[in-house]
Amino acid sequence: MNGKNIKTAALAVLCGALGCSPAADMQYRPSAQILPQNIRSIAIRPFANKTQQFGLEDKFTLRVIDEFLRRGVYPIVPEREADGVIVGEMSRYILLPVQYDANLVPTAYKLIVIINFRFLDAKKNIYLWEENNLEGIQTYAASTLPGGMKEEEAREAIWDVMARDIATRTYEGFGSVSGASQRKILATDVAPSTAPAKSPAAR
Could you state, in order of their start, the residue ranges of all structural domains in the chain? Predict the structure, then answer.
């Protein structure tokens, strides 16, 4: 028996002991089916806004639609034509000053946005899954400082991240993104004790 045959025989014995075969390793293994096969098109329902900040939902919904269109995995269609629908709400909007100058004027902020969303099988009229308390955070310097941001710019940065998270959760399944615990949300809803009484509270 030549060296090649010896190697082949040894591999066969090893695979037999492990309950496998060289051919098995060559088999096609498709990725897990995250959404049911009947879902062939998706709609993005305008997000509800339960915060006290007017008009957030419009820009955020458009950003989510743009992200789904950019990925191009499923056609994005009007809800009446869709097999599945993303349904969500913006539940919390919290702005906290995190740094002050010598005159107790805020020089840095932390913006936290909390959303809940779920996926509706429109044909069966049942929710397939939900992701609660998805958290977007942006810490930024005041716009009066070099490299600082306005609050609207901080929101836009959060919209980008959260739109990607929603698309990722939809396409890659549970565990691809992680919501914050309710206890954590409540803990961040109070400004630090070092902040002056006039500092902004959760909105």
Answer: 1-30, 35-188
The Cα–Cα gap between 136 and 165 comes to 10
Encode pLDDT of 96-134 as tens digits: 999 999 999 999 999 999 999 999 999 999 999 999 999
64 in Cβ contact with 163 (< 8 Å):
yes
Lookup: tokens for 51: 């915060």
- Of all helices (H) and strands (E), which one includes residue 13? helix 3-18
CA neighbor of 47 nearest in space, from 91, 77, 83, 81: 91
Give the global pTM. 0.72
On whether the 35-188 domain is CATH 1.10.10.10, my answer is no
CB atoms within 10 A of CB 17: 8
Phi/psi class of residue 55: alpha, beta or left (left: φ > 0; alpha: ψ in -120 to 50)? left
Close Cβ partners of 60 (under 8 Å, ≥ 6 residues apart)? 47, 90, 159, 162, 163
